[in-house]
Description:
Layout: E1 5-9, E2 17-23, E3 30-40, E4 53-69, H1 83-94, E5 97-98, E6 103-104, E7 106-111, E8 114-130, E9 136-147, H2 151-157, E10 167-170, H3 177-185, H4 191-197, E11 211-214
Antiparallel strand pairs: 1-2, 1-7, 3-4, 4-9, 5-6, 7-8, 8-9, 10-11
Amino acid sequence: MGRMTITAYTDGDFRSVSKSALELPVNPAKVKLTKGIRYAEDKQLGSLNGSNAYVRYQPETFYFECLFDMTATMEDDDEQMPVHDMVNALEQRLYDYNTEGHRPSFVKAEYGDITFYGQLKMLETEYTLFDPDGIPLRAELKVTLTGYCSQKEEKKHFSKRSPDVSRLVTLKEGQTLAALCYEIYGDALLVGQVARFNNLNGYRNIPAGTEILLPMLKKS
């Protein structure tokens, strides 16, 4: 198995490279992939283990830990980058502001048969050993990436107006819940189900700015 590499991109389609692939000096000591699904709780009185409705897939996360060590473990490698420089190179790809993209970079992490597309959620660096001049010789890193899928890629899998996808919508000025149900589901009569799903007392006179969770529903 080769070394883990981290590549930074300007765009969410992962086509425009902003920082070339960085090969980590050592492979991670721990790698964890997390996947989750969000459900809306059934809050009806008397319900047991309710019929919780599927809302959406949660973004996947990719977590790894690694140790950059300039002492005995790396002393035979004359070309090894100093620990602080290695941390800086990683931060440039994960954390630093990308002026072209006007945000931190998107990231591709590759390790063995794992290829993860995402963006940084958390980077923890703990320096645990220094030379007499205060130069760090050892750093323990914990990195968490959260998955990213561009709207273009998402549309390949789901239609924007598909009733098979749950979404959170903010009600606009002058927009009614019935009109929103017709726009999304093609059936205004589903307004009652949507109102109950959102624990609303009714479906009329809902203030603009109210967030409405639209579950997967089909026309009757």
